[in-house]
Design a protein that fits this description.
Layout (H helix, E strand, L loop, with lengths): L4 H27 L2 E6 L3 E5 L5 E10 L2 H8 L8 E13 L8 E9 L6 E4 L9 E5 L14 E10 L6 E13 L3
Antiparallel strand pairs: 1-9, 2-9, 3-8, 4-7, 4-9, 5-6, 5-8
């Protein structure tokens, strides 16, 4: 049986297409990256009554980062995080304002990494009850997010606090996830 030149060309084209398709799929898998904005659960804490000065107030929250990622894309989980950075921490006071508050900062650590990461900011005596501390760190926090317990500390210099002030904090992260 003799194979015609047209058949040889067709077989070669099919073989080349198959090889190209197989290698392209592997390359496409490597190119799949998903950017996610992760809002951590709200962390309640109280600024205790105190004389004027600097205080640190702490709150802890349990948060399932794996479930939060899967809620955005069921194909990924905490094991697929390739990078994580913190964008900001928003602190909200109930029935009070940040008037007179200076040198405000927030830090957090997790049960996976106990070394705190600080998100520094400064308030210029805002009369608002919401303070956004933008992150200046570009550190990769992936290892911090492979946890379920997160502790936040809000530190500031303030005038005298006559009664305890209920407050809360929410952290915002940027994640890049991709197939392993």
């Amino acid at each position: 049986m003799k194979i015609s030149n047209a058949t040889k060309v067709s077989l070669f084209a099919i073989l080349a297409f198959t090889v190209l398709l197989t290698s392209s799929c592997k390359k496409l898998d490597n190119l799949v990256k998903v950017n996610l904005e992760l809002q951590m659960a709200q962390v309640p804490f109280t600024i205790d009554a105190s004389a004027a000065g600097t205080t640190a107030n702490t709150g802890t929250v349990h948060f399932d980062v794996d479930s939060a990622i899967k809620a955005n894309n069921a194909s990924f989980g905490v094991g697929n995080i390739k990078s994580a950075t913190i964008d900001s921490v928003v602190v909200t006071l109930t029935d009070s304002t940040f008037s007179g508050v200076t040198n405000a900062s927030a830090s957090f650590y997790s049960d996976a990494v106990l070394t705190p990461v600080t998100i520094a900011g400064s308030n210029t005596g805002s009369t608002s009850s919401i303070l956004t501390l933008s992150s200046s760190t570009t550190a990769d926090l992936t290892s911090y997010l492979k946890a379920t317990s997160f502790t936040y500390t809000f530190t500031c210099t303030h005038p005298q606090v006559l009664t305890p002030i209920p407050a809360s904090a929410v952290a915002y992260f940027h994640l890049v996830v991709e197939p392993n």
